[in-house]
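LAB NOTEBOOK - FOLDING QUEUE
OPERATOR: T.R.
BATCH SIZE: 2
PURPOSE: Compare the predicted structure-token outputs for two unrelated chains run back to back under identical settings.
PRIORITY: normal
REVIEWER: second-year student, initials M.K.

ITEM 1
FIELD SEQUENCE / FIELD STRUCTURE:
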Amino acid sequence: MSGAVTPDLFVEACTLQRRAWVWMVAVTLPIVAFGFMLTPWRLLSRGDEDPVIRSVSDLAHAIPAAITWTIGIDLLTVPFSLVAALVALPFTGGLALALRRVRSRALHVVATSALAGTLAAVMVMPLLSPSALSTTIVLGAGAAAAVARHRELRRADRTAVAA
């Protein structure tokens, strides 16, 4: 292949974007958001204030609040992440074209994750400035892209073995 853009490359990029978007909305963003809300430094102190969690009953109130925050963040980001996935299509296709001759699967996963995280940061930071929400979205996007690319490569291996 001469490295030209082909319909297969576009289909591959669309498939990867669709899978990464589903992974982000359904798995990685909720996990990152919930984990971020329950990190020990966030629960135990808020700057110079007294610890937020002093007893088991305080923890019992923190967990439902974290779950509510996680669901809210996920619902809030669904339409924006769908638009971002469409905007990222040409970049994903360009990355696929650039990595055509690279054999390292780890490099494919890392490059896809870095691209998704960078694009998420570029799109989110002007709207939200650096905050807990923007960090959550950027980490969720990068993780989703890594999972989607890794699973895509595993699927290709299974198809090659079966053929």
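ITEM 2
FIELD SEQUENCE / FIELD STRUCTURE:
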Amino acid sequence: MAQNGYYIRMKKRVLKDLFTASFLFISICTLAFVSCQKAPRQSDVSSAEKLAEPSDEKPGIKKVVPSWHPSEKKICILFGYGYNDKAFTEETISALGAKYGLDDGTSQGGLILPFVFPDDFRDSRIMRLADKLEDVDLAGVITIGAPENTNYALAKIEEEWDNHLPYPVYSFFPQDDVLGIEATSNFVVDRAMEGTGISSGDSSEGGEEGSEEILQTRIEGMDKILDSAIECMLLSEQPLPGNKELMAHVQRIVGPSHTVSRFSDPESGLESINHFVIDSNVKTSK
């Protein structure tokens, strides 16, 4: 009987060990199966994340993105005497186009609307400037070397706004009548030597340039001054106030390499409110 009891205990122990081993085996298989099921899902998530990440690879065809944005507003730049030669205008307009964009007559056009006198004016009539700008939403007008009677064209544009333009007009080195260009510009900048910039010959509203002698000026760094003037227009979005601070605005536009002072009438000695002269660092040719 004792021997039978011993065999019975051994049998129970073996069965218990077999049960434990089977349980461990099943648990290990279950864990392995679950791991195999999860692995593909983890791989899928990683692939999705990789697809969402921006690629450092450059596309085969590069899309050239312009540095400027389309603009409904336009800044008209008139290139007149002393600044209307082909080399200067092409280089300057190209540089401005790269930075601000050129108007192409569409809603996707750039900021700059350039005109070269007399090439862009039929019959060399500057009065046609008013017609060219009639339907343009302007942010400003900049004239460089404005020809005679430009002030009449600007006055005609002013009439459409009850003589109160909502945008500024900057005039640099005009060859127009002094009082006329002063009256139709936010400010006028002239050369210090031979200050007035008046063309010899008669001026009339209906007439154009005749036998007058034009003194052409070319000041160094005009491209930088022009760029600074455009930036000032974009920041101010309106005519500069005609007060004692106007000269400080002009000084910032022309830069530290030029000294600004007020224009004095050679006959009366009176100083102009909005007419300034800068140092004589100019190149002059006839």
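REVIEWER COMMENT (ITEM 2): The two ends are 141 Å apart (CA to CA).
FOLLOW-UP: none requested
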